[in-house]
Amino acid sequence: MDMTSPIALPKSEALALRYGPVAMPDAGPWNDHIALLLSHRSVRGYRPDALPPGTLETLVAAAQSAATSSNMQTWSVISVSDPATKAEFAKISNTQKHIEQCPLFLVWLADLSRNDRLGTAEGVQQMEVMPYLETFLVAAVDAAMAAQNAVVAAESLGLATVYIGAMRNDPQRVAELLGLPPGVMGVFGLCVGYAAPEVLSEVKPRLSQPAVLFHGTYGNPEEPALRAAYDAQMADFSQRNGMGPDSWTKRVLSRMGRLAGMSGREKLSGILHAMGFPLR
Amino acid sequence: MDMTSPIALPKSEALALRYGPVAMPDAGPWNDHIALLLSHRSVRGYRPDALPPGTLETLVAAAQSAATSSNMQTWSVISVSDPATKAEFAKISNTQKHIEQCPLFLVWLADLSRNDRLGTAEGVQQMEVMPYLETFLVAAVDAAMAAQNAVVAAESLGLATVYIGAMRNDPQRVAELLGLPPGVMGVFGLCVGYAAPEVLSEVKPRLSQPAVLFHGTYGNPEEPALRAAYDAQMADFSQRNGMGPDSWTKRVLSRMGRLAGMSGREKLSGILHAMGFPLR
Hints:
The structure is a homodimer. By secondary structure, chain A is α+β, with helices and mostly antiparallel strands. Helices cover 42% and strands 11% of the residues of chain A.
């Protein structure tokens, strides 16, 4: 248990890991909650150990405590434990084996159907806001905020997590496996469990704050220099963590430059139409 | 300072506030981090007091520590302190005066433009994934996860917050005020500050867990009964907090039943097209 408890690093150490020693922001207040947030790493390998009883309910209580637009609560979550179903999810996700390893696999849903059923039960012919892009966006954003609270709660318990965006490689197959009605979409998955010690890597550095945080109006003329500095840092990080020398620029070009980087997700708009989201 | 420090409630008290005494989930592990998450309330009134130096940088370090799809980091954030600009944002948001009151107002951006500029700088004619719905969705989801981490960090410091979804009432005006380039959209705002004591209300109850958490496949045949129980609870909550007797069912019907509930956001799809998001 102690091995897996989160370690609350002092401010300067935590910031040095996240930004590198030369790009540390001039952060102010600090406490153990913030140290926990800074310590996040996505983990792609799990021990088979079961979670303590009631862990799922604790995580969902944290998730439901996140803000939700106008209290509409247009998200749901499904916990998946059947090994055959998890194997199917791994297949959808370009064989991410950690989906099969982790003791708790959650699929977070943008869910307009519950409030639509409410309308039907109350005799409303048509819940007029349902077909709009805005309504889908709110559902996806609220699912994301809820899931992020669950991640923070899990990590506070010494558990590791990784989001699985690859659920969107085949949203219709996800819907089939989970019995989703129209107006419900699996936005992403989430693995939860105890990290396998051999996969633990360092905290991943991010772009320095002047590249993403602006004051008053958008943009920073120093962006090219900030990117070059981050490239150098990520190349070091990659090499230290056995990933080969790879700059962020190269990663962005490879992931966003060509359609092949999308693993079929370029079809999402049409698929969502078929799943009951006209996205008007 | 002590007045505004978050109070870590014991598990049973925190769950009773969030779910009501009769619908408490059988939650397991518990700690102060989880108590903090459970204590969230959106606050719509602020004292003018300034934040400690470096608070913004602390919150953004927390935000950047959230997961981001493939480390693409397709979000940015702008801090707005100019009173005239804040007044304009309040106007966009149906006169939410807390935007003008709060010492720190943040606009969270789905930002494809930084990685698009990277492509241009590297001589790539067209970053092929940019025009797709999937790419916009990832940017909005990543902005939401980042912002949620900032909210948790803020609340851990005794600060209050409220998300401002009404930024989407007029995304083009938001873009104008912030000088956003094409491919950048203000997904939501966030007020941060010290709560004005007179606006503090109870933690808002949510639907009970069996209504939103499923095991293996979607749905719960008890949904109508769960909703009726929540309606009764929300009517009590509303009355106790001086909001008049209002069930959740009535709120959903009024917010989602008629287009008027959207405050113009039914136009979002067309507006995003014009702002450089073809959403293919």
